[in-house]
Amino acid sequence: MRRESPAARPLVLDQGSLEGLALSPAIAQMARQRLGALASILAGITLFGTLTPWVLFPFQSELVGRSVLVYMAQGGVALDAILMFLIWGTKWSDSRLLQIGFVYQVLRAATLSLSPLPEVGPPLLTWTALLVAVFPLLLPPVPIWTRAASLLSALTPPLSLWVILRFRPGSLDTVELVRPAVASFFSVLLALLSADVMRRFGLGASRHIGSYNLLERIGVGGMGEVWRAEHRFLSRPAAIKLIPRREKDTIRSQQKALRRFRREAQVTAHLTSPHTVQVFDYGITDAGVYYYVMEHLDGFDLQELVRRYGPLSSARTLFLLRQICDSIGEAHNAGLIHRDLKPSNLFVVRRGLRADFVKVLDFGLVGLGQPPRLDTFDGKITAAGMMTGTPAYTSPEMVMGAEVDPRADLYSLGCVLFYLVTGRLLFPGLGAAQMALAHAHEMPPKPSECTDRPVAPDLEHIILLLLEKDPAKRPQSAEQLNRLLDRIDVGKEWSDVMAEDWWNENKPVDNDFMREAVRRDSELSS
After folding, report:
1. pLDDT in tens, 48-68
2. 208-295: which CATH topology?
3. Whole-structure pTM over 0.85, yes or no?
4. 486 catalytically annotated
């Protein structure tokens, strides 16, 4: 998971592009039905108007000639028929149909550009102006597309009359030119106003998930996004993981992502170790976005910690390792395998009066240890070069497609420890496939040979023991590894006092959030 600027816009909230617009099945179906209904209504009105021009448009035949109107009417009905076929006769994605809908608006406005409403109606209202004003109410507002389509549609009546004047000078007077221009101007204003109101309403609603307010995006991972959030009533900080429903995904891939996401939430919620991230809530929004709410971690993941401050001492690495064993040991005893242990999934935070407190997160790849199928992602490199877990921390048995058990996590943990004490990957400078093969076949270097900093011999022995290719030669469980750690000597220990001093120097406690919560509570109580 990489951190990025809070100003970055998320998929779930971004309504400025069609590809980023996440629609629930209900909203998507409603948009389809509205587009189809509009096309049906326009087709019916156009056919009726074409068959009875002397009733609805008594003066137009003298103005531009009946043949022009007939041709434009036929073109409009053809557009209506095409749109209805695409909506009800194909399985195109929601975003693609939205694109077609906006293009349809402009082309249909052009076919209606010379067809004013009957004289008994409002004097400045035309069919094109009515279409421009109504269209933003039919589809979810996308600012760039809505504005462009409304403007282009509104320009079609004056442009059509200008073309007529070019070929038939003197056939129109000034009033007949001004009326559609004025109608177009007001229709664009009305369309933009209604679109903005609907967009603001939608954005405001989408910034709330359950009882939480989304504040800023703090990370992006392979599955989705992580947002800093706040409980609306308790003012409790939280982190919310979101997975938008991508329109390009097939139904099967969406179902697979949902199963994986649900499993991650349920598994994490049932683990009770204080070193496993705590899950508060789980669900799916009306926009088709899967989410779960977990405790907010204000600290560093181990990858960021090493990148920012350099490799860790042996004593501090051992201090963190014991806590990691507590989390994964509980998971292993429950028959669960993490499968994706890596520095970016291991956080160090303050917890109460304790510093350097480890939290293990991202159980999205957790499995029950069953042999992987060769036609799935489990342990196999796909055509895109991706594999379950992270290649830099993947065990040999996962690479080879063998049966995976808790000892695979211990191998990954060995790779993490190697990174913590050296500041580099076990097999750096390789692509995903080459790196995976190196884990399966190449002997790991000694950590002490890959860094200028001292590495305690006993800790180096533990790291190399975890990196054994044969699972039978590794520690057989996190509990056994913890017992081995009791017998090793790393020199001066890393204590709670040393950890507190380090955090006070590098990341002092920020009480602004708590002060703000107390202030708001006082205002509500007064």
Report:
1. 767 665 554 555 444 444 566
2. Phosphorylase Kinase; domain 1 (3.30.200)
3. no
4. no
